[in-house]
Design brief:
3 domains, alpha+beta, elongated, 10 strands, Translation Initiation Factor IF3, Alpha-Beta Plaits, 4-stranded antiparallel sheet
Length: about 230
């Protein structure tokens, strides 16, 4: 009787060991079956910060007269801006750049004017739509004798943190949908996440004609386990 019980226990132990080994092998095989997919999320937003530099040149031979003209032009520009909704704290008048033709030892023929001043007035503001309106009204400065060059206007979007969570969730959802399609085609099921990598957010202008419209983009790369 004792021998029978011992043999039975041994047989049960062998069966349990075999099942454990099979489960381990199946689990190992399962762990080797993965799929890596990418999920894209995009948003189009309006810039919420703009830097608008306006520069002009004046030339002459009388330094005092040029300085007076410089002060007058800067006042005309700042008055135009403040009267149309730009705060004085958002306007920055940079020191002028001065070129002295006589001081240029490498110059050729004598220049028509000895001095050339370049002055730049820069607006840094969150009033993006207002700046866009004022850009179309620059001829008003011409009528007052100030020939302003519209330098490159730099638009930025600085509120990324407010849309990050939704975009990450959307990218993850799109990645899962891609994994589900792959699993369906391969007659498998999507399991748990093995690894996940969130790409960097990129913010770029949509195109040159609408630089104030920004395209925000992020790509997440996720590896899922596949199940039978």
């Amino acid at each position: 009787m004792k021998n029978y019980v011992s043999a039975l226990l041994l047989a049960i132990s062998v069966v349990i060991l075999g099942l454990s080994i099979k489960a381990g092998i199946d689990n190992f095989a399962f762990r080797d079956r993965t799929v890596t997919v990418r999920g894209l999320a995009e948003r189009q937003v309006e810039a919420n910060l703009v830097s608008w530099p306006m520069s002009y040149d004046i030339a002459g031979n009388d330094l005092q007269a040029l300085y007076a003209k410089l002060q007058t032009n800067n006042r005309i520009i700042t008055d135009f801006l403040t009267k149309n909704g730009i705060d004085s704290t958002e306007i920055f008048v940079n020191p002028p750049s001065v070129y002295n033709a006589e001081g240029n030892v490498y110059g050729g023929d004598r220049a028509r004017y000895q001095y050339n001043f370049t002055s730049t007035v820069t607006v840094n503001t969150t009033k993006v739509r207002l700046v866009r309106q004022l850009l179309n009204r620059m001829p008003e400065l011409l009528r007052q004798g100030v020939a302003v060059n519209n330098n490159y206007t730099n638009y930025q979007y600085t509120d990324l943190n407010s849309i990050k969570p939704e975009m990450i969730a959307e990218a993850t959802k799109n990645a899962r949908e891609a994994a589900d399609r792959f699993a369906s085609d391969s007659q498998s099921k999507v399991g748990k996440i093995k690894t996940a990598t969130q790409g960097q957010f990129s913010i770029e202008s949509v195109d040159n004609s609408t630089p104030y419209l920004m395209n925000v983009r992020v790509v997440s790369s996720i590896t899922y386990y596949l199940e039978d």
